[in-house]
Each structure stands twice: as C-alpha cells, then as structure tokens.
Amino acid sequence: MAKLPFFFSTALWSASASVPVMKMLADQAEENVTRAVSNEMITRISSFGSYDEERYDDFGNCVGTWQRDFFTCGSCYGDDDDEVKAEYKHLITQLTRRSAYLTIFGIFEHRMMECQKLMANLTGSEIKKLSIENCHKHLKKIGGDGIADVNHFIVIRNVMAHSDGVAEKYSSLVKSQQFPNESTRRRVNSVTRALNADCGISISMSNNLIMDRYFLDNAIGEFEQYIRKLENVVRAFHEENEG
Fold first, then answer.
1. What is the C-alpha separation between 16 and 226, in angstroms, rounded?
2. Which pLDDT tens digit goes with each residue over 77-110?
3. Please, what is the angle between helix 81-123 and helix 215-241, to 10°?
4. Does residue 73 fall inside a structural domain?
C-alpha cells in the first residue's frame, strides 16, 4: 500500500476548513433576507400607480376606458397590495437562500472530489468520474459502510439549479409510485427523504421546493458531520495500512 502523500492532510484539512466558510455564507444569506423583507425596505421599494384600460365589445370595438390601480414591490406587481408584497417576500427569500445553497454545495462538492482523489490513491483505484456519489463509493470501500450518503442534498441542488426549484410532478409520482426511469425514481425518493428528515424543506401544491430559515444551517450540519466521519474513516484506514 502506498504511503500517505503530503496532499492527503491538505485534502482533509481543506474539507474541514470549508465548513466555517459555508456557515458564514448561510449567516450572511439570512441577514440579507431579514433586511430585504423589513418594513423599511418594503416601504422603500413599493409603489402605487394607475393606468387606463380599454373595454371592447364582441366585435372588437373600443367602447370606453376605465382606470385600474396597480401596486409594485421590487419586481412584483399586481392589483392587490398585500398579495404583491407577499409575493416579493417569498421570491426574494427563496432566491437568496437558493443562491447561497448553490454556492455552499459547490464548496462541499469540490472538497469531496479532492477527498475522492485521496481515497483512490490510497486504494490504488482508478478514477472514472469525480462526483460526490463516487466519493461515497470510495468511502464505503475503506470502511465507511455505515455512513449515510448525502444524495438527497444532491437532488435538491439539481432541482434548484436546473428546474427553478420545481420538483416536477412530485406529488403525482409519489402517489402513483410509477416512475418512467431510474433518474425520476431517484429524484422522487430523495425529495421524500429530505421532507421526512425535516431538514428545512417543504413542498407546495405546485411542487415547488421551499427553503425555510433553518435549511441552510441544517444542510451545512449534514455536510460537516459527513466530512468528520469521512476524515475518521480515512485516517483509520491509513493507520491500519501504513507501512
């Protein structure tokens, strides 16, 4: 078995050191949310206006106009002030947390890829593809069988990054348990796992994944725990096989 190279300690240290960075990002995101939905900010970005709307008969002839009021709040607008403000608060809250999560997940993913390289080097395994899933496969090979994967967070990341936060057809699929392919089954099961784990994710009637104020901290807590367990297994494997 090959001796432990210098970058081994660097890979593990970098993974652990990334956790405070993730926590900083989460804290900043929640501060931004609080500031964005404060009464002061809502008042500053809200406005009221009116416009003339034409009325047409069945033949397409304009028969008159009437004045309609509208309200705006940020990028949201409509004819009901409370609904417009509620829509803005929801939108800015979700987009802020989503952006932070994608950055946090990217940091975690990068560190796990480096750890995958490390474990492959220790076992003399070939690296066909760098990914969190394959990192977990390497971890299982060296004694991490009892460690739970983080695949549900991978799926949440994919839904947020590629589907605008919509878990397409989740409600109907989870009810029917009829899946067109393995990718769909994986997505549905992972969303269900996240919902059952009470990690700060809920789902709307239109299948939108909603992040509450605890989600980022919960996700980071899972990542931190995974990193700690990975480090323990890798160090134990190295000590057992050293020399």
1. 10
2. 998 999 999 999 999 999 999 999 999 999 999 9
3. 0
4. no
pLDDT at 243: 52
Residues 30, 34, 37, 41, Cα dihedral to 10°? -130
Asked if 141 and 233 count as a contact pair (C-beta separation under 8 A), the reply is no
Would residue 192 count as lying in a domain? yes
Is residue 55 in some structural domain? no
Structure tokens, 179: 């899946």
What distance in Å separates the CA atoms of residue 157 and residue 159, rounded to the nearest whole number?
6
8 Å CB contact between 94 and 204: no
Whether 227 and 153 have beta carbons less than 8 Å apart is answered as no
Q: What domain range includes position 230?
A: 6-44+94-241
Instruction: Decide if 67 is inside a domain.
Output: no
Whether 46 has a pLDDT exceeding 90, the answer reads yes
Q: How many CB atoms are closer than 10 A to CB 71?
A: 18
For residue 27, give the amino acid letter: D
Written as six digits, the tokens of 234 are 């890798």
Number of domains in the chain: 1
